[in-house]
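Our platform keeps sequence and structure together, in a single record for each protein. Nothing more is needed to write down the fold, since each code stands for a local backbone conformation. An entry from our holdings is shown next, in its original layout:
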Amino acid sequence: MYRERIHLTVTDVDGWNEAIDAMAEINKVMERLGHPTATIWTDTVGVFNQLVAEVDYVDLASYEAANKAFYANEEIVKQLPRINHASVEGKGY
């Protein structure tokens, strides 16, 4: 198994909602394309504005195929500025 984990710090409640909505749109497209989708996690207690997206792949080859499809899809690429706008610069990894 290969797991991708993306950590994101959002700006505020509006940023939270924007990021969650954009990730949901990305998940819809990835599901339609037949690729794994992200599970979005956050802490129940603690810092509010932290999100983690995790995607599990059966192997590195499936990760590479999904990553290629991700960046080649216009519907997905147009969601990325929404996530960037909702994020605190320099706090994601």
Q: What stands out?
A: Residues 9 and 46 are 13 Å apart (CA to CA). Strands lie at 2-9, 39-41, 50-57. The helical segments are 13-32, 60-72, 74-77, 80-86.
